[in-house]
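Hi U.,

Before I forget, here's the chain from the pilot set. I'm dumping it here mostly so it's searchable later in email.
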Amino acid sequence: MDKNLEQLFYAVLGGALAVKEKIETSNEEIKAWQEKSEANAHTFFDEMAQRGEQEKEQFKGMFKDILKEIVAELDLATRGDLEKLKQEMDK
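Structure:
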């Protein structure tokens, strides 16, 4: 009976060590995956920020064009119109 008990103890000990090794291996894989995910997230964020900067200039130009059209439609005085008027008044 002692021999069976000893074998059971070693079997449980061996199983516990195998589980411990599997957990450590899995933990290292999870850490590597997490680091890779973080790097991918940073890269993605940087790419989106760069694209946003590029689109900003294009959007700014479109917005200016729309404002110019609105000013023209409403027949509002522009800076140039006001400067011409000031020059005429100074004469």
